[in-house]
Amino acid sequence: MGKIQAFDVTFKDNKVVYSPGESLSGTLKITTTEALLCKDIKVNCQGFCGVTSKSNDTAWTVEEQYFSSTLSVADKGTLKQGDHSFPFKFLIPASVPTSFEGNYGKVMYRVRAFIDTPRFSKDYKIEKPFYLLSLLNLNDVPDIHGRSSSSVTKKFTYLLGVKTGTVVLKAHSDMKGYTPGQVIQLTTEIHNQSGKTTGSVVACLIQKVTYQTKKPTIDLRTLVQVEGAGVKAGKQAEWKEQIIVPPLPQSSLADCGLINMEYFIEISLKSPEASFMLPIHIGNISVDITSARPSRPPPPATDPSHYLVMGARGQATEALPTESHSQLGVLSSQATVSPSAFSYAPGLTFSQNQPRSDATNTTGPLFCVSTGATIPFFSEGSTNPKPTLYPLLPPEYSTSTLPHEAPPSYVESCSSNT
Q1: pTM (two decimals)
Q2: For the region Disordered, what residue ranges are annotated (predicted)?
């Protein structure tokens, strides 16, 4: 580095995770091997979002800046040989989004330092990232209490079109919002009103990230996939399955206008082809189920599938076995059963009592910024980042080829009954 032997930015107490409205303090340290003439020494604190339509491209198509503050720590003069320390302090605005890193965009925060030298001399610069966590309290999400549910009725032909049949597919999750480490309790009912065995039933946890470029780019990822057996002709079956929520970025990105995050559970039959989405939320503070109000009884059903189900209730409902379960690796230690190197075993169950995650809990992965190959997550407080040691996506799953048909919106999913 020529006359500069050391040029570094350090944060107070080595803290790297901050909250909106918090102050950030640190020190710029410079060690020179000989006297250095400089015009100015500045420290800049910046937060911004950049998105692009090309994967892993940092030549941003659209940018959104949240703040940029610059502090001059030394005026024009000569920096003598030796060690120099320049303290700095910045106030982070109260309304800024949580840090995020995806294939087509990032919400980034960084501190940069500059040494401006006279003309024809070498300038110096350095930057150090920090992360921002704005806790998502799921209890603040509208209509968060209760279950996420939907159904679809599929009429089809078989035996070369000679015969017709109907399949009714219904499913619900035990809650609408979860935190990493909690378990999604999923119940699916299949009513096979035909003379043909159905194909397998599949449940997938899907992440949808929308990047607002000139033409919105949608990145869909299958995070977990579970597959159950088919249902025999004329039978009705119930399939109960559990999905551990891995460390994931929170739903939506409040105060960010360029990136939106959504999560769904997709329920589908392979044959006849039928599917729908159950929208869910991922947050940092768990749903308080003790404050949930009793739900009103549902109105009388007018959907024809309702009468098909009613007519089939005279039959015994069979328990549908799970054929395969692909789940992420090491998760929070809060889980009742460690899912390390997880493979589904019949009869394996998790506690019905969901572990709570809140701002005072320092053991869980409260903060996840990435959808990439690895996830750095952080406990609340002044602890150092703890990078995970496992891939976010199993090898058999990959990002869908774009452009991709987007899943229905939250409102469309909630209102769809056919």
Answers
A1: 0.74
A2: 389-418
